[in-house]
Amino acid sequence: MLLASCAAFALLLAACGGSATPSASPTADRVAGVVNGQDLRASSVGVVLAERRLLGQSAAGAFTEAVDRELVRQEAIRLGVSADAATVDKRIADLTTQMGGAAALTKSLAAAKATPAQLRQSITDGVLRQAVQDALFPKVTIGQGAVRAYYQSHVKDLFTRGASVHLGAIPVRARLIAENALRRLRQGHPFAEVARQFSIDPESKGNGGDMGWVTAASLPSGLQKALVGAKPGLMARPVAAAGGWYVLDVIATRPAQVLSFATVRAGLQAELTRVARSHALDGWLAAARTKASIQQK
User: Per the domain annotation, does 150 fall within a domain?
Assistant: First the structure.
């Protein structure tokens, strides 16, 4: 939501730090380097590389990033802080929801040649980094005046929620198929049952055609036009869009809305403070890196 760095994955991986858990086989998990006398395993670098593939980022500098995470881990031990397991679990659950469910997340991980264990470690790294920056820089905070100024300068692009619709949809390849599906609905068959029978979209099919709340602007133009002024209920005719045909059920609508400052103030202040402390930790890491004993194997 607020200030998300790079969409779904980046929102939860943006503040990474720490080190990866060594693999089960010590012989397979070679030593990639040594940081202040502590072994930096290849699996630690592998977590960074997997995360970058997930985010579509370059692999350049992965070793340096892994070193930074090891420095953060060492500082966490000195400070007596750790990554909260409940926070890690919540972020994984949030990411699973944002990606459209466990199956969609698994598919994305497979496409990036990343494992669930690597994803968990990346998120754990982020939680640990935040714990360390909060412990090191508790006095770095963003005041109410700066928070309000940020809100006012970004109200249109960040704090205006577009018109949205809770939509049931059954996409099919041909109009005759859509009309057949619509006929079954009019005969009293449940929407979920008909969606599972006719829909060609595996994800929405699994949800019984329920697409949840979607912004109107995110839909194909044909659907956008059909939904202008639409009221809750089954639409009378199939709609042509995106190279196919859709049977639509408007479950509920929600008009465009500007989120008030009072509504977002607490979350925005926390996020701006987190970003400021993250920048402070970046400076700390640059200095720590110059003082550290670092060897790459």
Answer: no
DSSP 157-187: HHSEEPPEEEEEEEEESSHHHHHHHHHHHHT
Q: Is residue 152 part of a domain?
A: no
CB 50 within 8 A of CB 112: yes
Query: 200 CB contacts (<8 Å, ≥6 apart)?
Result: 171, 172, 173, 244
Contact 272, 158 (CB under 8 A): no
Predicted confidence at residue 13, as pLDDT, reads 53
Q: What are the pLDDT digits (tens) for 165-223? A: 999 999 999 999 999 999 999 999 999 999 999 999 988 888 899 999 999 888 999 99
Together in a domain, 247 and 280: no
Instruction: Report the amino acid identity of residue 203.
Output: E
Q: What is the CB-side half-sphere exposure of residue 101 using CA atoms within 13 A?
A: 10
Contact 199, 172 (CB under 8 A): yes
Could you tell me if 17 and 79 lie in one domain?
Answer: yes
Instruction: Give domain status of residue 166, yes or no.
Output: yes
CA 24 – CA 62 distance, rounded (Å) = 22
Domain that holds residue 176: 162-257
- The structural domain count of the chain equals 2
Strands (E) in 117-270, as ranges, are 160-161, 164-172, 210-215, 233-234, 239-241, 244-254, 257-258
Residue 106: its H or E element: helix 102-111
* Predicted confidence (pLDDT) per residue in 10-53, tens digit: 444 544 444 333 334 445 789 999 999 999 999 999 999 999 99
Specify the CATH number for the domain of residue 191.
3.10.50.40
Give the predicted TM-score (pTM) of the model: 0.69
Q: What burial class does residue 198 get, using C-beta atoms within 10 Å of its C-beta: 0-12 exposed, 13-18 middle, 19+ buried?
A: buried
Do 41 and 185 fall into the same domain? no
